[in-house]
Specification:
Length: about 280
């Protein structure tokens, strides 16, 4: 690992070209303006395949705008986004999104199984392949028994599991998650965080997670991008460095977890630079 001063902030992640680190997502000098208001200012970072990177920062720092730009839903004012070497100039075929508002992301007149199968037509899969992919994804999130139910018959946490299953079945290169656990209770949120870790361990996708929960960002991530106050800039790019096998109690008791949680909290609160340590 290497800690390098870059443009006034610190970053810590595997060096480009290191074994097992292949750059898949590149955000290059991204700036976005709404009229005369600058939402994002010269944002640059890279994400490797099979990495889970969290983006944290105060409300209004441009996190959601950044995700929309990466998803091809917003054309940046200046700069470039590349996914698997291709410039993003529309919604990429190999991308999936899980939103915070699961009730709006699922089609209430379709069964759970059909909700998961629905986007697979875009992949060109035949009926049998779509059925198998949906069953496999629902089993992965523990919802095999709910396949024939409708979303409105499920709890909020179960509905969000359906949304995650739909993304898994699609098998994207990049999964974007915009505050995906923000609308559920605390216990369900913890369960979904552990589900996300299991998904990571069994899939080959890259995940970019926007969250306001600092503990969550440290617990689930490989790296954390801390964004400064508006206009949004990347203030720090931090390697989490915790063991890949994580436990909700034991991991949170580790000195490294406590230390990093404090550092991220201080950065979000004060927009101070990361000291060398």
């Amino acid at each position: 690992m290497s800690r390098l001063p870059v443009l006034g902030y610190y970053r810590c992640f595997p060096i480009r070209g290191a074994v097992g680190f292949l750059i898949v997502l590149e955000v290059l000098k991204l700036t976005h303006m709404y009229g005369e208001q600058t939402a994002l200012d010269d944002v640059s970072f890279e994400v490797g395949g099979n990495e889970l990177v969290s983006i944290v920062g105060k409300s209004g720092c441009g996190k959601s705008t950044l995700l929309r730009a990466i998803a091809g839903l917003v054309a940046p004012t200046t700069g470039e986004i590349r996914l698997s070497g291709r410039t993003v100039d529309g919604v990429p075929d190999d991308l999936a999104v899980v939103f915070q508002d699961y009730s709006r992301s699922l089609l209430p007149w379709m069964s759970v199984r059909d909700n998961v199968k629905f986007p697979l037509k875009r992949r060109g899969l035949d009926k049998a392949a779509r059925q198998k992919a949906a069953e496999t994804a629902l089993e992965a999130v523990g919802l095999s028994g709910a396949a024939g139910k409708f979303p409105w018959q499920l709890s909020g946490g179960m509905q969000q599991r359906v949304a995650i299953a739909r993304a898994l079945a699609y098998r994207p290169t990049l999964l974007l998650m915009d505050e995906p656990f923000g609308s559920v209770d605390a216990q369900t949120r913890e369960d979904l965080e552990d589900l996300l870790l299991r998904v990571r361990a069994t899939s080959d996708m890259m995940i970019l997670l926007v969250t306001h929960d600092i503990d969550e960002s440290v617990y689930v991530s490989d790296r954390i991008l801390v964004m400064g106050r508006s206009p949004g800039r990347v203030l720090a790019d931090l390697n989490v460095g915790l063991p890949s096998q994580r436990d909700r109690i034991e991991t949170r008791e580790l000195p490294a977890f406590v230390h990093l949680r404090s550092e991220v909290g201080r950065l979000v609160r004060d927009n101070a630079e990361v000291p060398a340590f």
